[in-house]
């Protein structure tokens, strides 16, 4: 006999064979009747219907563009500086008028911790974390998003926490 | 009370008709059982999903009805793995040994009222064996050979433990299973299932009431026999990976799966037949029929096709009820600890089933002595019918016994629940204290600590 089995001290009412079993059966039967015939609405039928994300959900990045298709980024270097995961690679360039632009702008979404600091720090509101969660890829290399990829992302960008509107309304 | 009638214008089927109809019945029963078993796998998933406020499978076909087919195709197409150390012959043999008894046992269960045809009256039972339920008990316990063999042939320690547990559990509960049916047998006087159904119809009382203790024990034993929760120790996932079918994959695994559900179906049908009147239509006396007696005359009411259909419906409903309870219990009650399984089998079910047999026998004897014969023989002799009065007396006696059994179980006096193990806890504390004392002595005694 297993004499050294560790057991919790529970009253007989809760651990008895008949009463506890019957009350458990009654509970599960109630749930069975409630959702029999697929009436339970707690399940989100994923590919058909999608989860309503919070407006502050932080997903993969979006680069905002000007109307003529250039990225808004001015290659100031603040985002790679503040990035705690060190996932942003930026090589700045300068055109004839002295406007700075990114020659290389890559974000490694595998390294990214989705803190949203790049969006907060950006002086021209160019880089954003997105309101999006379906980011599957077939290879690891595809998770390094380059500038083209970031500009092509269509999903809405995240509303970061605003001290003036703490509840997000 | 329905008197025993004999109708002579009905004739038995000829040998050819018997052969042809038997083959039709075998094929029909086999396909129905296989389809129902497939649907049971879906039903299990649906019931469990609904109980947990989920939806369950709903992608394949309307409401997920195509899921069993998809699972079947998947299992056939999957790769079979054969462990290098496994005994190849027995490893292959075990799933077959497990599935065949589970399917064969359905043969002796009558599933509807006899069907009148041009070629004679066909009993709606695949094989009306004289040994009926003894055959069923023998074969249903043969199923455990497949499990033990699977455990041993896998050459895997978890599988072996699962097989051992299956064997131990079968031995512990087979006794209570047989004993609980004993009082039923000596009251009915036969082990053929059609006659058990007929006796219930004549008494106008299903055996669930006059033999409530037997019913209760039989039900519990059936859970143990089918290796389903709360008695699924042979395949306890948390302890033994999945027990005896750890090493099995693809169709071989699927065969164990089918065997389990076939067992559930058979056992539910058996409980419906033994204790809920089988295909009896409740409250209707016109379906009280047995079949041809030894003298070749028809015993019971006039058979009709609509009676066959309706009685099959009632049989299916009763079976479905038990299957639903099987599933509800499986998804509600956690697994027993091994010592609790043994305690329940040997300390409660075996003695209580014995007492129930003695008390039932004494009640029948007392009724006979008091001039109220328990079994009243009809005006033309032959089969006697159990009187409703006798049945009601037995109901009262069994009710008292059932209450006593439940009270004992519920108090945790004989069988300790998970929380009321005071005795064991005191024992454990005592052990720990003694061990600490020994340790202290060893440390304080000069010279011994060096060792």
Describe the structure.
The complex is a heterodimer of chains A (169) and B (451). With 169 residues, chain A is of the alpha+beta class. Chain A is built from five helices and five strands. Chain A has helices spanning 12-15, 18-35, 78-82, 117-121, 147-152; strands at residues 59-63, 88-94, 100-108, 127-130, 144-145. Chain A has a three-stranded antiparallel beta sheet. Chain A has a two-stranded antiparallel ribbon with strand order 1-4. In chain A, a hairpin with a 5-residue loop joins strand 2 (88-94) and strand 3 (100-108). Chain A is elongated and about 85 Å long. Chain A starts with 11 loop residues before the first helix and ends in a 17-residue tail after the last helix. By secondary structure, chain B is mainly alpha-helical. Chain B is 62% helix and 5% strand. Chain B is built from 13 helices and seven strands. Chain B has helices at 15-51, 67-77, 88-104, 132-153, 157-188, 193-203, 212-225, 237-240, 250-275, 305-330, 338-369, 388-411, 422-444; strands at residues 6-7, 115-117, 120-122, 289-292, 298-300, 375-377, 384-386. In chain B, the strands form three sheets. In chain B, strands 1-5-4 form a three-stranded antiparallel beta sheet. A two-stranded antiparallel sheet of chain B has the order 2-3. In chain B, strands 6-7 form a two-stranded antiparallel sheet. In chain B, a hairpin with a 5-residue loop joins strand 4 and strand 5 (298-300). The radius of gyration of chain B is 26 Å and the shape is globular. The A-B interface holds A 1-5, 7-12, 14-21, 24-25, 27-29, 31-32, 34-36, 38, 40, 42-43, 45 and B 47, 49-56, 58, 63, 328-329, 331-333, 337-339, 406, 409-412, 415, 417-421, 424-425, 427-428, 431.
Averaged pLDDT of chain A, please? 83
Q: What does the largest sheet of chain B look like? A: 3 strands, antiparallel
Structural class by helix and strand composition of chain B: mainly alpha
How many beta strands in the DSSP annotation of chain B?
7
Main sheet attributes: strand count, strand direction, barrel closure of chain A: 3 strands, antiparallel
Shape of chain A: elongated
Percent helix range of chain B: 55-70%
- C-alpha Rg of chain A (nearest Å): 26 Å
Can you tell me the residue ranges of chain B where pLDDT is under 50 for at least 5 consecutive residues?
Answer: 1-6
User: Count of helical segments of chain B?
Assistant: 13
Evaluate the radius of gyration of chain B.
26 Å
One letter per element, helices H and strands E, the order of chain A comes to HHEHEEHEEH
Could you name the ranges of chain A where pLDDT drops below 50 across 5 or more consecutive residues? none
Mean pLDDT of chain B, rounded to whole units?
A: 82
How many angstroms separate the termini of chain B? 85 Å
**In DSSP terms, counting alpha (H) and pi (I) runs of 4 or more, how many helices of chain A?**
5
Let me know the number of strands of chain A. Answer: 5
